[in-house]
Amino acid sequence: MTWVANAWYVAGWDHEVDQAPLARTICGVPMMFYRNLDRSVVAMRDACPHRLLPLSLGIREGDSIRCRYHGLKLGADGFAEEMPLKGDPVNRRICVETFAVAEKHRFVWVWVGERAIADPALIPDLWPCSATGWAFEGGYNHVRADYRLMIDNLMDLTHETHVHAGSIGQAELMEVPIDTRVEGDRVLVSRWMPNVDAPPFWRGALKKPGAVDRWQICEFILPSSVIIDVGVAPVGAGATIEEHDQGVRGFVIDSMTPESETSMHYFWGMARNFDLADTGFGKRFKRAQGGVFAEDIVILEAQQRSIEANPDLKLQSYNIDQGGVRARQIIARAIRASAGVRDAAA
Question: Which domains are present in the chain?
């Protein structure tokens, strides 16, 4: 297993989960999500306990779901409410597995692992997604690649120079030193680019001519999220790598939920502290950002195919890969710790 078992993962955007069942495989487990009439979220295994037809094909009846094959009716708690044959007594031992869920930062989260220890306080702190003074937009892609490859990608932004040459790439990304540090279960990769020309997007956001100081601070958060503090400020405004609210600032938000060992659900977006009243800007930027991430997806899916075609070869790590390497080490430690929890429970 390549993911942490006892952890919160993004199952969907808040607007994706509605009264109609949503099917999504999370960490190898087929799950189904829907909202009760009070808008709370239900998460259950997407398999009828009778003949294993996906419950996501079922019929909603109030807060319950009726299997479309033989009509077994299950409540939102997963327990049988009506049997397939009319008149048969309800057997409450018939049930389907349900999962702990929570809503935070515009996402629906599901706990994968031992439900008894699901603690909402452990949800990754993607604070810019819901903080006052920030606007947040984003999207979703299904990606046929190991989720850790996306973490590698996001923790090494030198790839922007070549993969995103027409949008956010900049030669200085390959020339400026990188600082990588580990703080507990977090990895931070920082890059400070003083007195450079702003790339087109940031020039438009700043709305000022002249050279800028630019920063990128990538932060990995267990089990599989990366937030990237990015922006520019006019040279002389006083911005530093530690304090940089003098210009325009954003947080690229990325959460990678494993589907299988070779595929993922990729939730992405950007929280910004500029042009807050311009809702059209948010939509336009979401479209542009989706185009940038589509370039990454082409690369990562090709990389995954190459990994599978070359089982005798191993990924190599250079200096630019330190952020991804450290993140993988933290994931590996958390997997071992999670396995210990399962062994103790057994």
Answer: 7-121 (2.102.10.10), 126-338 (3.90.380.10)
